[in-house]
Design a protein that fits this description.
Helices cover 45% and strands 16% of the residues. The chain is of the alpha/beta class. The protein has a single domain, classed as Alpha/Beta hydrolase fold, catalytic domain (Rossmann fold, 3-Layer(aba) Sandwich), CATH 3.40.50. Strands 1-2-4-3-5-6-11-12 form an eight-stranded mixed sheet, sandwiched between helices. Helix 2 links the parallel strand 3 and strand 4. The termini are far apart.
Length: 364
């Protein structure tokens, strides 16, 4: 009889635990579904700003400081063409731009906007000569300064380096390249996938003309499919189950899935001339009759990369040190992935202060 009592008691406890686990599972499932399906995208890009110049879809933002500017040299951010630029100003407390503004820098951002069908013929020559060059002049005009700090992220860093090699005025005093590929000799898995014999970019561009956002997004996510398609959502489940705030997950997930269409001609050049031809590092890339020679760059240089970055390998970013002629150049590598230079605890505690301090010492 005692054995039966013990068994009944144990069964009751087990039943209660199973019921608790089931109720918890249902509650977590409801919250998980609400976040993914019904919860509106969180607000991003909240640092106060004003639009000071426009061209086509592009806007040049100037960020408003409540504390006043301590440093004379303005900063212009150039972002990639693929994702949205608000990753640089993701959410209050996790924003590189917010941090730099609070430190007293005069900060600008060239936001490319959403490319449409009418933009399909835009090339790197158009983007650099007609957009970046004009934006630089506008920044110098509004800041009343004849020199500038250029900060480029990913493809935006590659374009910033191209601009710096082409234009002597206004002076690019400081050049910060964040996860910016300059040497495509070894681009990891991308080099394997994008070999000319197996990836005919001309056929792709001729077929699409305007490269669909989902086409590029799928290619990037397949570089690390388990993390991008499975682990991302398992992390959300874990955060819900442990009662953690999911705000950081929501804002980052919004950005990761908020892609833009890509002008076909720019995409053709990016794949054919960079990944397949490595023309930039080999001094063979020409824009409007001008050879892009990175050795012409003499600006103070800071190159940043993530040791876990599978999109832009550290070696691709570190190549800036030997491809340029800068006398003052530094390289910093952090234990993060591609987006970890601007988002996450390491970005906030290490990358933001390091960049701000480096710029402050060279922006008087």
């Amino acid at each position: 009889m005692k054995k039966t009592g013990c068994t009944n008691s144990s069964a009751a406890v087990l039943g209660e635990k199973l019921q608790e686990s089931y109720d918890r599972f249902l509650d977590n499932s409801k919250k998980w579904a609400e976040i993914l399906v019904f919860d509106p995208y969180p607000q991003t890009g909240m640092t106060p700003k004003e639009t000071v110049w426009r061209k086509n879809k592009a806007k040049l933002y100037r960020y408003i400081s409540n504390t006043g500017e301590k440093y004379q040299t303005p900063i212009l951010f150039i972002y990639a063409l693929i994702n949205k630029a608000y990753i640089l100003d993701l959410t209050p407390g996790m924003s590189l731009i917010e941090h730099l503004v609070a430190e007293g820098h005069d900060v600008y951002l060239l936001d490319w906007g959403d490319f449409g069908w009418e933009d399909r013929h835009l090339s790197f020559a158009d983007l650099i000569f007609d957009y970046i060059a004009h934006a630089v002049r506008k920044v110098c005009q509004f800041s009343a300064c004849r020199q500038i700090s250029l900060v480029g992220y990913c493809m935006g860093g590659t374009m910033a380096a191209m601009y710096a090699s082409l234009f002597q005025q206004p002076t690019v005093k400081n050049l910060v390249l964040m996860a910016a590929p300059l040497d495509f000799h070894d681009a990891g898995l991308s080099s394997l996938w994008l070999r000319p014999e197996s990836y005919d970019v001309d056929k792709i561009v001729d077929a699409f003309e305007l490269i669909p956002r989902h086409f590029v997004d799928a290619g990037l996510k397949m570089l690390n499919p388990v993390n991008n398609y499975v682990a991302t959502y398992s992390r959300l489940w874990k955060m819900i189950d442990e009662g953690m705030s999911v705000h950081s997950w929501r804002v980052l997930n919004k950005w990761m899935n908020d892609n833009t269409n890509l002008p076909g001609e720019a995409y053709r050049q990016w794949i054919k001339d960079m990944y397949q031809g490595n023309k930039l590092a080999n001094k063979q890339f020409v824009l409007r009759g001008h050879l892009i020679d990175l050795h012409r760059i003499e600006a103070n240089l800071l190159a940043l990369s993530g040791s876990n970055d599978h999109i832009v390998l550290p070696s691709q970013a570190k190549a800036a040190l030997h491809l340029t002629s800068s006398a003052d150049k530094d390289y910093c590598e952090f234990p993060v992935g591609h987006g970890g230079l601007v988002f996450g605890s390491i970005a906030k505690k290490s990358v933001y202060p390091a960049m701000s301090e480096w710029l402050a010492m060279r922006s008087a």
